[in-house]
Specification:
InterPro entries: CheY-like_superfamily, OmpR/PhoB-type_DNA-bd, Sig_transdc_resp-reg_C-effctor, Sig_transdc_resp-reg_PhoB, Sig_transdc_resp-reg_receiver, WalR-like, WH-like_DNA-bd_sf. By secondary structure, the chain is of the alpha/beta class. Helices cover 39% and strands 20% of the residues. The structure holds calcium ion (CA). The site of calcium ion has 5 residues, from loops.
């Protein structure tokens, strides 16, 4: 499992320790020493998960969590709060503010890595290496293999990530902007029609095995992967 993790922590020694451990666990870590820097980073590219210290200089971690939850674009980013406070009411406040989990310092690196894995599995399955099966297609992130039954499907890296995201979020309509954020990870420098190009390539790759119909165009909205046949006229 390799996820893009935004680590927001103002104490350099702790930041270093956490980043080193997450790096060893295979994650890509982007660091911020305060909430304002973290907001700038999130504006450029959505992370798969935010590891957020409660006590920060300037805006607090809990306030940043509240803002991420209030913004449509960042609403679903998984958040794990880090805190030196161990009181039950703080934990409740953190979870009410929308944190997915809560870890009290000091914690072991192994515990942190395990908690991250659990939250990603629950909230961002496209960032885990769990195999996915849907509508007769199987995709294995660990080996980068896609197959329809016994028949292998060859995909480019972007089509693979696109299919992985769609298969882990089926039956939902995703706008082009959302797909850029989730699959390309950076919505600033890529045009929305790029999404159409890669959807076309993905369909072309799925056509020989008869699965191109899984990727449906929802007019005026975006794309959806569905194991149900598309409704006529949609
Ligand atoms: Ca702190």
């Amino acid at each position: 499992m390799a996820a893009n993790i935004l680590l927001v922590e103002d104490e350099p020694a702790i930041q270093e320790l956490i980043a080193a451990n997450l790096g060893r666990a295979g994650h890509h870590v982007v660091r911020a020493g305060d909430a304002e820097t973290a907001q700038r980073i999130v504006r450029d590219a959505l992370p798969d998960l935010v590891l957020l210290d409660w006590m920060l200089p300037g805006m607090s971690g809990i306030e940043l969590a509240r803002r991420l939850r209030a913004d449509e674009r960042t609403r679903t980013i998984p958040i794990i709060m880090l805190t030196a406070r161990g009181e039950e009411q703080d934990k409740v406040a953190g979870l009410e503010m929308g944190a997915d989990d809560y870890i009290t310092k000091p914690f072991s690196p192994r515990e942190l890595v395990a908690r991250i894995k659990a939250v990603l599995r629950r909230r961002a399955p496209q960032a885990t290496e769990d195999p996915v099966e849907l509508g007769g297609l199987s995709l294995d992130p660990a080996t980068h293999r896609v197959a329809a039954g016994e028949r292998p499907v060859t995909l480019g890296p972007t089509e693979f990530r696109l299919l992985h995201f769609l298969m882990t979020h089926p039956e939902r309509v995703h706008s082009r902007a959302q797909l850029l954020d989730q699959v390309w990870g950076d919505h600033v420098f890529v045009e929305e029609r790029t999404v159409d190009v890669h959807v076309r390539r993905l369909r072309a790759a799925l056509e020989p095995v008869g699965h191109d119909g899984l990727i449906q165009t929802v007019r005026g909205s975006g794309y959806r992967l569905s194991a149900q046949p598309a409704v006529a006229g949609v």
